[in-house]
Amino acid sequence: MKIKPKKTPMREQDPKERIKNFNEVPFGYTEEEAVIEAERCLQCPKPLCIEGCPVNVDIPGFIKAIRERDFDRAIKIMKNTNSLPAITGRVCPQETQCEERCVLGKKFEPVAIGRLEAFIADWEAKRGIKIPEKPKPLNIKVAVVGAGPAGLTCAADLSKMGYDVTIFESLHLPGGVLTYGIPEFRLPKSIVEREVNYIKDLGVKIQCNVVVGRTVTVDDLFKEGYKAIFIGTGAGAPRFMKIPGENLLGIYSANEYLTRVNLMKAYKFPEYDTPIKRGKVVAVIGAGNVAMDAARTALRMGAEKVMIVYRRTEKEMTARLEEYHHAKEEGIEFHWLTTPVRYIGDEEGWVKEMEVIKNKLGESDESGRRRPVPIPGSEFRMKVDMVIVAIGTVPNPLVAKTTGLKTGRHGVVIADENGRTSREGVWAGGDIVTGAATVILAMGAGKKAAKDIDRYLKEKYLNGV
Predict the structure, then answer these.
(1) Facing residues of 351 across strands?
(2) Which of 445, 442, 443, 83 minimizes the C-alpha distance to 235?
(3) Between 31-38 and 113-127, two packed helices, what is the crossing angle to 10 degrees?
């Protein structure tokens, strides 16, 4: 059979229309489109795509099932290793993971693995999600701190093994960054809710509005009978540039801005009474996925002009190419090799301008990317009435106060390759260990920790059974 060189296109909202709403941008594959795309898979005897997946999904296996129109088998194969397929199919950076390893990609476009993953998850949801048979209970309690991707994955895997798992979440809704950080047009909250409900149906309990480290401590959890604790609290504290004027009104961290819009539904004002400024000329500082999310959100919140201001070039940005492509389609302006040096406010304390300096690229730094070097005398001003700073996040400092837990630079928890921390019985994984990274890497860390927690608990409490 002749292989189609390009991915099967996925229909999506017209850019002129979608900037006026928060509805999901792609429409997803139909059954016919999914089968056509699945037929592009070479079914390699040594599939490298699996090696590129942090949760080791049997990619050729589920794609083969789609090709044979056995969608029920496809979702079963998927859920053997991935409890959140509708989410990962939408937000995973497949182009640098599974799809980057796809052999077909050496000559043509790689198989659209992420699109097929989302398709099969949505196909199942339309027909009713099946819950696997519950194992024999082991009567051992495990606590998971944080209901984001790492915590949900760790909890799901442990529950499937028979452990009595409770997740403690500080916000009023589970999902972590999936709920507060990623906008509705990229990941609808109904899908997060759907996948969280699946994990609850596996037997996992979720207690919201509990701040571990403040409401209860790790020591309290051990006293309550939990035999192991997994910490997956992410990296939710924003970073700023520490330049003059950064405390002016109208300057947000991307974390605060996206939380107000996504979690507190400011986009549905006045149905939801969440205060937020709706800037007309908005500058977003940074060029990662969060910056793209913030810029596209500002556009949908009514901005007339939104600019991404980044100190390096397009080549060094960390955003997914798909998000960058969508942002360009929607009319976001990009100002490369440009760094803010100060903000200027009006008489009432609102930001009205920012002074920036142009850069050239120097030698590579520790990230492997060429370092921006300011060009003396190149300063100029840009008119803005709102700024969103999206230059990264660090872990919540509350975690570092846990007794016996060693932490490193920026407060990350130090853990080994299985997630074991310096304190016995405590594991950690995801952004709290690595710093801000991706959803799928956090899920991979949750899976590794679950396996190691199981090994530890069996050796200690179940006589190695």
Answers:
(1) 345
(2) 442
(3) 140
CB 19 within 8 A of CB 7: no
- 323 burial level (CB within 10 Å; 0-12, 13-18, 19+): buried
For residue 465, the model assigns a pLDDT of 61
Tokens 């992420």 locate to 114
What does the CA dihedral 394, 293, 449, 102 come to, rounded to 10 degrees? -130
Placement of tokens 């996504």 in the chain: 262
Q: What does the block give as tokens for 438?
A: 């991706």
Distance CA 8, CA 114 (A): 12
Q: Which pTM was predicted?
A: 0.91
pLDDT digits (tens, 9 = 90+) for 35-64: 999 999 999 999 999 999 999 999 999 999
Residues 6 or more apart whose CB falls under 8 angstroms from that of 29 comprise: 8, 10, 37, 115, 116, 118, 119
Helix 289-300, helix 321-329: angle, nearest 10: 20
Tokens coding 313: 């070039």
What are the beta bridge partners of residue 281?
305
Report residues of the chain scoring pLDDT below 70: 1, 400, 464-465
Whose CA is closest to 430, among 406, 407, 447?
447
SS3 167: strand
Q: Give every CB contact of residue 283 below 8 A, 6+ residues apart in sequence.
A: 306, 307, 309, 340, 354, 382, 384, 386, 387, 388
Tokens representing 309? 């201001």
